[in-house]
Specification:
Elements lengths: L15 H11 L3 E2 L2 E2 L1 H9 L13 H16 L3 H14 L4 H10 L6 H11 L4 E6 L5 E14 L2 E8 L14 E5 L8 E3 L11 E7 L3 H4 L6 E7 L2 E8 L2 H11 L3 E5 L1 H19 L6
Antiparallel strand pairs: 1-2, 3-4, 3-7, 4-5, 5-6, 8-10, 8-11, 9-10
Helix pairs in contact: 3-4, 4-5
Length: 286
């Protein structure tokens, strides 16, 4: 028995009927081979179709979304990046160059080197990596552990390598390397024999946060204890690189002190002294 249907009468301005038919045709809501206004209204009422104006993006918002999409792709989340680009193409009021860029990217997948890298990490398979650093020096590493981390707005491949040559970190951390991910793409990744490690090497570092930082410090990756002792906040952290630790502590200035171990403390003190020497030296202001 056919379902009973209700009839309504609409009063609409001239030209609106054609506009409704155009929308129905756009979403392929048809009666036979003609656009169906009735079907369009039903789809809207049943929340099967959402209509609205394209949202307008400011230049700052566009830049933020571009960075987010790049980060998703670099992190291996290509499907998620494509979903975001598709949403922006569908609903965003994008200028022509950005629209063309998204259209090109949306059909692309991860490059072959990245697929192989992710596969080696996921399968816990050691590999040999040819890497070119910022000074254009070539290195060959036998990698037995690797993970991708975001450090200071860039993605790095954190590795444990058999080779220690050229590493200026502490002897305890000499096997660890931070390799910029964007310097790997044109180079080689080759499977290697051996056993995959469980992690990087670490040293325990004892930090004291003072003053305002005692209240405002937010826990970081590797923090294994965090307790308050009067006006001091004592944090113990597992550190895989004193390079990254020192960069962080420099930003805290006198609000944070490395209290141990002694070799980590001395390493930071020498760096701070070198900075002071630069500012103690006379400079030519002309």
């Amino acid at each position: 028995m056919p379902r009973k249907k209700e009839t309504i009468t609409l009063s609409i301005p001239p030209g609106t009927k054609e506009q409704l038919e155009d929308i129905a045709a756009q979403f392929k809501i048809l009666w036979g081979d003609r656009p169906s206004i009735s079907g369009l209204l039903v789809a809207i009422a049943q929340a099967e179709l959402e209509l609205g104006q394209r949202f307008t993006l400011t230049p700052v918002q566009v830049q933020a979304l571009e960075q987010a999409i790049k980060l998703l792709i670099d992190s291996g989340y290509v499907t998620e990046a494509q979903t975001l680009m598709a949403l922006l193409l569908e609903r965003g009021n994008l200028d022509s160059p950005l629209r063309q860029s998204f259209l090109q990217q949306i059909s692309q997948s991860l490059p072959a080197w990245r697929v192989l890298l992710d596969r080696q990490i996921a399968s816990r398979q050691p590999f040999r990596l040819l890497y070119r650093d910022a000074q254009q020096r070539d290195w060959v590493f036998t990698v037995r552990y690797a993970e991708i981390l975001l450090r200071e707005k860039r993605l790095y491949l954190e590795t444990w390598n058999e080779e220690t040559e050229g590493n200026r970190d502490l002897p305890e951390l000499a096997h660890n390397r931070s390799l910029r991910l964007d310097r790997i793409k044109d180079l080689n990744i080759l499977p290697s024999d051996g056993v995959w490690r469980e992690n990087l090497d670490f040293v325990k570092v004892y930090l004291h946060f003072k003053g305002e930082l005692a209240n405002s410090y937010e826990s970081k990756r590797g923090d294994i204890s965090d307790e308050r002792d009067g006006n001091i906040r004592k944090v113990v952290r597992q550190v895989s690189s004193t390079f990254w630790l020192n960069r962080e502590i420099l930003a805290y200035r006198a609000g944070c002190e490395i209290v141990g171990p002694e070799n980590v403390r001395d390493r930071f003190k020498r760096e701070a002294q070198a900075i002071c020497q630069v500012y103690d030296s006379p400079t030519d202001s002309t």
